[in-house]
Specification:
186 residues; alpha+beta; 3 domains; two-stranded antiparallel ribbon; elongated; 7 helices
């Protein structure tokens, strides 16, 4: 029996060999077998899993506290906690929704702020002023210059991006043309 146990590296291997589930009940059966037969298991590896990744210490970029994480792991932690993660990735400059920049990207003003600074906050088609979307006239979401931003209600914004575009496109074109001619030169 000792020779058989010399081929195992752990209690769980012994469990599997004997057809036991690797749980408390199965491990208890193997331990009883070892005790009854006075088997030496000093060669078994310690009861901790082998570490696949190196444990490193990092400084949280939000609160500057030190924390540990697994280097190279697919989910290597970038911050010390959920709160700091939310601060870093759900708000501020690292948020993918942040930084819809004005014009050439020299300022961090959101495109809606720019639009409603230069345009009245109402749909240019129907006059809706409670819920107003902003349409990028040239469909380039990086171009946030005032002449490229057109206030539309969600319904008419959907029209512009659908097969019904031709029903309102002439109104949008005239609005942009008049905006460039009358307002921008000031």
């Amino acid at each position: 029996m000792q020779e058989l146990f010399n081929t195992f590296n752990s209690l769980s291997q012994a469990c599997r060999y004997h057809g036991f589930h690797v749980n408390k009940k199965g491990l208890d059966k193997v331990k009883l077998m070892i005790k009854e037969n006075n088997i030496d298991i000093s060669h078994f590896r310690p009861n901790e899993k082998e570490k696949k990744y190196e444990i490193i210490e990092k400084e949280c970029p939000v609160c500057l506290t030190l924390f540990t994480t697994q280097k190279g792991h697919q989910r290597e932690k970038q911050t010390c906690s959920y709160a700091c993660s939310n601060t870093r990735f759900r708000s501020g400059i690292n948020n993918p929704n942040f930084g819809k920049l004005v014009g050439n990207g020299d300022c961090n003003t959101h495109y809606r702020t720019v639009c409603f600074h230069y345009h009245k906050k109402e749909c240019i088609i129907c006059g809706e002023n409670k819920i107003v979307s902003v349409h990028h006239y040239d469909n380039n979401h990086k171009n946030n210059e005032p002449k490229n931003l057109v206030p539309l209600c969600p319904t008419h914004h959907q029209y512009v991006h659908s097969r019904y575009q031709n029903e309102i496109q002439h109104i949008v074109d005239n609005y942009v043309k008049n905006f460039e001619k009358n307002i921008l030169p000031l």
